[in-house]
Design brief:
Elements (H helix, E strand, L loop, with lengths): L8 H14 L5 E5 L6 H11 L14 E5 L3 E6 L6 H6 L2 H4 L5 E6 L5 H5 L7 E4 L10
Parallel strand pairs: 1-4, 1-5, 3-4
Antiparallel strand pairs: 2-3
Helix pairs in contact: 1-2
């Protein structure tokens, strides 16, 4: 396990951008965190690292957005998903099994264990939170 500490949005963006630059096709990255901790900032940096120039915003109401960079990025936000069947209905298994790099946002409120039933083994879990004693994440 690696712990990276960020003290600003800019630093979080740069950390995520470096991860995106190192990402390989077929890898799955899950970001877990409560509302407002900086998951979208992290997603923007990750996408930039993949060479994606599009505007990245939270797919909360769409559940998933697709972007083209070095390879396809599926950006899921499953915060409001309460049933695995809802993920199946939007094609989650098909999108996570086609060799694209995926960035999957999971909220701590939803529960990783419930969603991980659909994820292949070997995904990277990134937890983000705001430390009580500082602004850092």
């Amino acid at each position: 396990m690696r712990i990276l500490e960020s003290r600003s949005e800019e630093e979080s963006f740069r950390i995520a951008e470096e991860l995106g630059k190192k990402a390989k096709a077929g890898e799955i990255y899950c970001l877990e965190g409560e509302l407002g901790v900086g998951k979208t900032v992290f997603a923007k940096g990750f996408a930039k690292g993949l060479g994606i120039d599009a505007v990245i915003d939270s797919p909360t109401f769409n559940i998933v957005k697709e972007y083209q960079g070095r390879f396809v990025l599926y950006h899921f936000d499953v915060y409001r998903i309460e049933d695995i069947d809802e993920l199946l209905e939007i094609g989650f298994e098909e999108m996570t099994g086609n060799g694209a790099t995926r960035y999957v946002l999971l909220s701590g409120q939803v529960g990783l264990r419930k969603k991980s039933l659909l994820l292949p083994s070997g995904y990277a879990l990134i937890k983000i939170w705001i430390k009580a004693s500082s602004i850092g994440k």
